[in-house]
């Protein structure tokens, strides 16, 4: 039974995806590209939740679906975050006529 | 037979994961934002495939519906609405950022990989807990029931154990909906008379909408005189 996909494979994939998402957040100037990179990071975290749920045993009083439920709530929050984030980006685009995050520097003295 | 299918699983996992990493890299590095969005759709689909590998097929369906069906389309709309930045040089990073960003990313990746490889419980596991085959007339275990009938189990859990988080999530979605509409709503007055907001700012209009207009309209005024801020 050692031929099964190991837990660490999922963890390595999630870690690599998370690192790529972080690279996108740091590297991109376009606000929508930053939102997309944040989505990559959230999905990587979801992989970890579900992998640990499948490979571990949930604690006694927590029900049989711990990691899956957390992943569902993460998906919910990510959807709300994207909706509000895109509203903000469109608002800023109308004001500055640019979607670049480094143009939104009104608050920096 | 069993180990053969596991080998197939392993090679499939490696190929699909490689596709997913390519999709993520394409999202991050593509100059054209529409291409980046399409790479992101590929990445979301690979995540759904990973959920299938983890025997969470319900979550895979949710992933396809919510992320590919809603989030990616929403991002596409936003890309199209902010069209003039597509493909030009403003989407690339400034020179001084690239090296620190790469160093941070590689450092994080190194730390995560080091932690994973040093945790014996994660690397030397003897595979996932098996789902037993349920014999007729026998009550399946909670885990087998959860994996085999995940949709029903998720519904039961949402309305019993996770009832409060479920309501909070609904409240959050409502707040997100209202907030997104309120943010992106275009005022006719704001278009017609921009200087009116400046008067509202000094006057201190009591209702929230007046204040929002004041903040909105003060942007172009203050940006036309950049030195006055400091």
Question: What keyword list fits this structure?
Answer:
heterodimer; A: mainly alpha; B: 230 residues; 74% helix
Task: Describe the 3D structure.
The complex is a heterodimer of chains A (109) and B (230). Helix content of chain A is 71%, strand content 0%. By secondary structure, chain A is an all-alpha fold. The radius of gyration of chain A is 18 Å and the shape is elongated. Chain B contains eleven helices and no strands. In chain B, 74% of the residues lie in helices and 0% in strands. The longest helix of chain B is centred in the N-terminal third of the chain and has 28 residues, at 2-29. By secondary structure, chain B is mainly alpha-helical. Residues 195-230 of chain B have low confidence and may be disordered. Chains A and B meet through helix 1, helix 2 and helix 3 of A and helix 1, helix 2, helix 3, helix 4 and helix 6 of B.
State the gist of this model:
The complex is a heterodimer of chains A (109) and B (230). Chain A has helices spanning 7-27, 31-55, 66-96.
Average pLDDT of chain B, to the nearest integer?
79
Quaternary structure type? heterodimer
User: Overall 3D geometry of chain B?
Assistant: extended
| Basic shape of chain A | elongated
Number of strands of chain B: 0
Structural class of chain A: mainly alpha
Q: Care to count the β-strands of chain A?
A: 0
Largest sheet of chain A: none
Helical region count of chain A?
3
Proportion of residues in helical segments of chain B? over 70%
Instruction: Provide the gyration radius of chain B in Å.
Output: 26 Å
Query: Between the first and last Cα atoms of chain B, what is the distance in angstroms?
Result: 74 Å
Which regions of chain B are unreliable across 5 or more consecutive residues at pLDDT < 50? 195-230
Order of helices and strands of chain A: HHH
Structural class of chain B: mainly alpha
Distance between the termini of chain A: 61 Å
The proportion of residues in beta strands of chain A is: under 5%
Report helical residue fraction of chain A: over 70%
Largest interface: A-B, 80 and 101 residues
Mean pLDDT of chain A: 88
Biggest sheet record of chain B? none
């Amino acid at each position: 039974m050692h031929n099964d996909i190991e837990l660490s494979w999922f963890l390595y994939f999630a870690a690599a995806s998370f690192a790529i998402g972080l690279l996108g957040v740091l590297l991109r100037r376009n606000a929508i590209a930053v939102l997309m990179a944040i989505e990559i990071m959230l999905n990587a975290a979801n992989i970890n939740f579900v992998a640990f749920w499948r490979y571990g045993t949930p604690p006694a009083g927590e029900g049989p679906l711990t990691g899956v439920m957390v992943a569902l709530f993460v998906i919910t929050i990510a959807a709300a975050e994207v909706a509000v984030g895109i509203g903000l980006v469109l608002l800023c685009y109308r004001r500055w006529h640019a979607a670049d995050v480094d143009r939104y520097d009104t608050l920096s003295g | 037979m069993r180990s053969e299918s596991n080998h197939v699983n392993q090679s499939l996992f490696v190929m699909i994961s490689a596709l997913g990493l390519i999709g993520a890299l394409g999202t991050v590095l593509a100059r054209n934002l529409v291409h980046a969005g399409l790479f992101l759709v590929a990445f979301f689909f690979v995540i759904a495939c990973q959920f299938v590998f983890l025997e969470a097929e319900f979550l895979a369906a949710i992933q396809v519906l919510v992320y590919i069906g809603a989030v990616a389309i929403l991002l596409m709309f936003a890309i199209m609405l902010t069209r003039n930045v597509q493909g030009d040089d403003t989407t690339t990073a400034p020179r001084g950022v690239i090296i620190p960003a790469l160093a941070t990313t590689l450092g994080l990746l190194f730390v995560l990989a080091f932690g994973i490889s040093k945790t014996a419980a994660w690397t030397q596991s003897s595979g996932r807990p098996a789902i037993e085959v349920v014999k007729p007339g026998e009550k399946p275990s909670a885990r087998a029931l959860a994996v085999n009938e995940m949709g029903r189990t998720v519904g039961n859990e949402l309305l019993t154990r996770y009832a409060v988080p479920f309501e909070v999530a609904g409240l959050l979605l409502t707040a997100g909906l209202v907030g997104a509409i309120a943010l992106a709503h275009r005022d006719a007055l704001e278009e017609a008379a921009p200087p009116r907001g400046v008067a509202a700012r000094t006057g201190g209009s009591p209702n929230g909408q007046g204040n929002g207009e004041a903040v909105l309209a003060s942007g172009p005024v203050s940006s036309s005189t950049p030195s006055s801020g400091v």
